[in-house]
Amino acid sequence: MSADTENFLSSGNYKYKINEPLSKHTTLGIGGAADFFVEVDTEEKLISLLKFVSKNKISFFVLGGGSNILFADDGFRGIVIKLAMSSEQLTNDAEIISVSAATSLPDVVRQTAERGLSGFEHLAGIPGTVGGAIFGNAGVKEYSISDNLINIEIIDFNGNKKILKRKNINF
Ligand SMILES: Cc1cc2nc3c(=O)[nH]c(=O)nc-3n(C[C@H](O)[C@H](O)[C@H](O)COP(=O)(O)OP(=O)(O)OC[C@H]3O[C@@H](n4cnc5c(N)ncnc54)[C@H](O)[C@@H]3O)c2cc1C
To answer: Is 0.85 surpassed by the pTM of this model?
Structure first.
């Protein structure tokens, strides 16, 4: 698996490391090494990587900001995929915002506040990415990120894009 994986990653111009300590990528600073640690900076690369791991039955794990994850001391056998698309700037002043999974949640909270948009204020102080927040339905006692969600676009484990409406997601 290793040689094929390395060939795929190097020929696809992926930024990757072998035997990367996961302690460097989690807030609590623990965790052994991942066989492969891949930073994916475009959607196209993410889709091809997911198609590759699915076809070759390789274990993988998607990492956001690492603020809610504890990796074992034994590390991870397979590929840890770190979403590393640059954080998005909100460009319009509409009441509905659209933001990518890799964007920092604190950035979204700050930018929506600057535009006078409500809905994200309860999420102030929660670290991590938008993707991680949606995955865990981050929030506080009275409010969760899903409360103001309309829909999400996902890329499934086979690399196919789908739109899921809020009402069809079991948070
Ligand atoms: C100091 C501190 C305070 C916190 N306060 C709160 C709080 O008040 N409320 C709260 O809810 N949480 C809180 N958390 C927990 C944490 O910040 C949230 O759960 C956060 O939403 C995790 O996001 P992340 O990007 O860091 O996810 P990660 O820790 O990287 O990943 C968490 C899970 O989400 C999955 N995941 C991440 N990104 C994606 C993606 N794009 N697609 C699919 N799956 C993905 C991962 O596979 C993993 O299973 C706190 C954490 C810390 C360290």
So the answer is: yes
